[in-house]
Amino acid sequence: MKIIAGNKYLKKRENQIFFDLIPLDDILKLSKTPFMIFLENKIRDNIRSFSDTMTSVFPNFQDLFRISSGVDWVRTAASYDLSSD
Questions:
Q1: Which residues make Cβ contacts (< 8 Å) with residue 40, sequence separation at least 6?
Q2: Domain regions of the chain by residue span
Q3: Bond before 34 cis per omega within 30 degrees
Q4: Contact partners, residue 74, CB within 8 Å, separation at least 6
């Protein structure tokens, strides 16, 4: 798969575009426009980068973040296994 515009989460294979390995055609079949796409792997990478940066400066730092998709949750990044991605 070829990376598009330097974005490792946006790829092209043959004539098909993928967002985080999900074909754009599948997204368009399930969604009406306009819509917004959140890339799970990009979010995980951002959380990991933020956490690594903050803990390098503040050793006791504990990051909290909010996920909202109809139901609101508050969790610590430590509750997610970010190392396996």
A1: 20
A2: 1-35, 38-85
A3: yes
A4: 64, 65, 66
Query: Which DSSP string do the residues of 3-17 spell out, in sequence order?
Result: EETTEEEEEEETTEE
Residue type for 51, please? S
The pLDDT tens digits of the residues spanning 5-62 come to 888 888 999 999 988 888 888 888 887 778 778 788 888 888 889 989 999 999 998 8
At 55, list the tokens.
């803990």
Structure tokens at 21: 């390995």
pLDDT score, position 74 = 41
Alpha helix segments (H runs only) across 8-73? 24-30, 40-57
pLDDT top residue among 14 and 85: 14
Report whether 25 contacts 16 (CB < 8 A): yes
